[in-house]
Amino acid sequence: MAVIAAAALVNLVGNRWVERSATATAAIKIIGIAALAIAGLLAAGASSLGQLVSTSQSAAPEQGWMGFLAGITLCILAYKGFTTLTNQGVDLKAPKRNLGRSIVISIVLCTVLYLLITVAVTSSLSVSEIIEARDYALAEAAEPLFGSWGVGLTVLVAVVATVSGLIASLFAVSKLYDMLRDMGQVPGLPGRREHQSLFITAGLAIVMAALFDVSQIASFGAILYLCMDIAIHYGIVRHLKEEVDPKVWIPWVAIVLDVAVLVPFIILKGTSDPFTLVVTAVVALLIMVSQWIIVRRRSRHESAEDADRH
């Protein structure tokens, strides 16, 4: 909760601090994770890598393909940060040119780092050891080279990643909230609007952090994010087809892929943690009801204004 408050404070200082902190923390994250992953690969050696290839070709997912697809649902959160780039597009220099480049460069960097981590960990540790190590699996893989320093470096990278992610997310989400409020899509608080969206976003994040653990929050986010993604793509095809002029097959492919990973995740979550699904459903219902109310109020206000004009 203190980290969320600190991230909100950085956003209050201004965009320059957000930009500088994002650049510095991104460099620390990339270098730190790459160093740990490469150390794990060196510690594993060529023989372990060869054994990894032969094992992966014969091994099946522990919970079958449904478990494999459900796991992809959480992996999608690793790439959710690209919405941060799009929400901050207005603040970029030459956004039409740099926004696409930023996304491509980020995807390449993330993919390379994730592959390095996966190969380093799975070539050094068994499945049971990875489960036991959990968040420190990468440090365990790099232990032969870094020793106890590996745990410290992992913690440092995790803290930096958390802080930088919060700073960027609070900035992007508050900007998006401002835009939606101006469009009459979401409610606001009475009084001055300055920094109001930031306070709302940070406050809700603090409540979530106080009431739920990280795995539950990740599950909430994954389900709500994919449902939102499906709704947006369907809305583009159904209501904005003429205005946006999209390649229709792209939204439909996205919808099919979202459903393919979301349904198995919900089924498995329903058997292991039904409470998370209940809370997610309640949150989704509250979002839909609040948006329905605010849109109806906006429609009535616009109708009243039209009547006064005539």
Automatic annotation (TrEMBL):
Pfam families: AA_permease_2 (PF13520). It is a multi-pass membrane protein. Gene3D superfamilies: Amino acid/polyamine transporter I. It is found in: Cell membrane. Keywords: Cell membrane, Membrane, Transmembrane, Transmembrane helix. InterPro entries: AA/rel_permease1, APC_superfamily. The chain crosses the membrane at residues 26-44, 64-82, 103-126, 146-174, 195-212, 218-237, 249-268, 274-295. This is Amino acid transporter.
